[in-house]
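hey so i finally got around to running the thing on that chain from the lab meeting. sorry it took forever, my laptop kept dying and i had to restart like 3 times. anyway pasting the input first so we r on the same page abt which one it is
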Amino acid sequence: MGMVAFFLFGPVLLVAIVVVVATVVFDVSPWVWLALAAVPLVFVLTALVFGRFAFRTWRPVRDLIRAAGSLADGDYSVRVTTSAPAVRPVVSSFNRMAERLESADEQRRRLLADLGHELRTPLTVVRGEIEAMLDGVHDADPDHLELLLDEVTVMERLIEDLRTLSLAEAGALALHPEPTDLVDLVSDVGDAHRRIAAERAVVVTADGPASLPDVVVDPVRIREVVSNLVINSLRAMPDGGGLALRVRDRGAAVEIEVEDTGVGLAPAEVAAAFERFRKGSTSKGSGLGLTISRDLVEAHGGEITMDSAPGAGTVVRVTLPKVVAS
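ok and heres what got predicted. didnt touch it at all, straight out
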C-alpha cells in the first residue's frame, strides 16, 4: 500500500515543487506552469493506473493459460483462483469445465472397469467349455452348446444395453412416438411374463382406467422400461408373492406403477438403484436395466422414482407427460 501511495502521489508532489520553484525563478503565473505540467502528470498517472490494472489482470490470465495447458495434458484436477473481477467469470467457467471433465473421466474409468468385470464371467465360462470340449472332457453335445449360447446371449445383451445407454446419455437416442394405449401396453407386458411368474409362484395383476386416451410415447421404449421393472420384481420374489401393474391418470401426467411383495431394498440401495452396474442381492442381470429405464423415461420428459424397504417390497413409479394425440 505504501509503494502504491508513493507512485500515485509522488508525481503530484514533484509537479507542485517544480511549479513553485519555476514561479519564483521565472516570475510566471503558477497556472501557466500547472497547465504545462498537467499533461505529463496525467500521462504518468494514467500509465501507473493502467500498469497496475494490467498486472493484476495478467497474473490470473497467465495462471489460466498454464491451467489450460495442464488440462490439455490430461490433468483434470487443475483449478484456477483469482480475485480480479475482470477475469472472474472466465475463471469460473474454466473451473466448471474442468470439474465436468474430471467427473466424465472418472465415470469413463469406472465404466471400463465395470464392463471388464461384467464381460469376464461369461468369457471365462465360454473359454472353459471350449477347452473342455477340445481336451475331450465332454462332447460338444446340445446341452453344453446351449450353455455357450446362453453366455453369448448375455454378452450380446450387455453390449446392446451399453449402446442404448450411451445413446440416451448423449441425447442421441431416437424416439419414435405414436399414440399408444398404455393400459393395453402394460397388460401385454404382464401377460408376456405371466408364465415365468407362475413358475415362481408369483401372481401378476394389471389394471388401469378404461377411459384413458391414447398417449403419445415411443411404445417400444416404454415397453422396455416396464419389462425391465417387471423382471427386477420377479427376481426379488424367489419364494413367490404378488406383482401389481397399474396405470393411473394424474391429470397432466400418466403414472405407471409396478409394485411387488419381494425382499425390498435398504435406503442406501434405493439411493443407488439407478447407477450403472448397480445390482441388488437377487439380480442376475448386467446392472444396467434401471439405468437404461431412467434414461428412457427422462428422454420422454418423465420421471422414475422408487420406494422400498427391507421385507416390505418395492414400488417403482414412472410418470410421463400426458401428451394426447390430436
